[in-house]
Amino acid sequence: xxxxxxxxxxGAGPGVPSFYxxxxxxxxxxxxxQRARTRSGALIDTGNERILVDASPDLRSQLxxxxxxxxxxxxITHWHYDHFGGIGDLEFYIKLKRKHPVKLFLPSSAVExxxxxxxxxxDVFELECWDYEQxxxxxxxxxxxxxxxxxxxxxxxxxxxxxxIAYFTDTSGLPELTEQRIKGVDTLICDATFHGENWYPDSxxxxxxxxxxxxxxxxxxxxxxxxxxxxxxxxxxxxxEEKLHSYPKVSLAFDGLTLKL
Length: 261
What we know:
It holds the Pfam family Lactamase_B_2. It contains 8 helices and 14 strands. By secondary structure, it is an alpha/beta fold. The protein has one domain (4-256): 4-Layer Sandwich (Metallo-beta-lactamase, Chain A). Strands 6-5-4-3-2-1-14 form a 7-stranded mixed sheet. Strands 7-8-9-10-11-12-13 form a 7-stranded mixed sheet. The longest helix has 10 residues, at 207-216.
């Protein structure tokens, strides 16, 4: 099979719908479950190896939904709960089925936090700290970690095989050097947390800002992800898609979206 990049989850921290929320986005997602969003995460499937990118608190349900029954590596982009909260879901898979450790790539700033949060899993992971501009090759897929603008140490991914895909779920714009590295990518998958006012301009982007970033780096296609839908002006998938009619190179991510690499 050709290498694939699958979005397991495309929502921000609260998910859509949220149990406590009755905004128009949550009502839409309850009425049409295909428009629901679990917390952000992705999977690189080379055909020979599977690399999980982030472990959201929804990980178990994501893996069951996508019929994923094995993993070879775990790559954590940054240490925020909506990106690491599902790590514990892998304990019994590794101990009972795989029976040897999974390599876990972490930002160096997260190692102590990982050890404090998951002391019972120290024997199931082999830890390795990633560095910016470091590249890894998995079968025919090259993965390079690039700096993002977020509140803590955060890596975005440049994936290169037949296609070049840039994946930045949590970022406020991009550092200039990162912009240069991903110039002209086939696909930019990008943080578009907010609709309306950006409550966290140092950490996230609005839908409009994500569209502008895609235009700036001349991406062939921009896919909006890490969508809160609740903030700051709640909006529905239908409303956003109507707005995107004016942007033929831009589309909305959805859980389960699969791209060929």
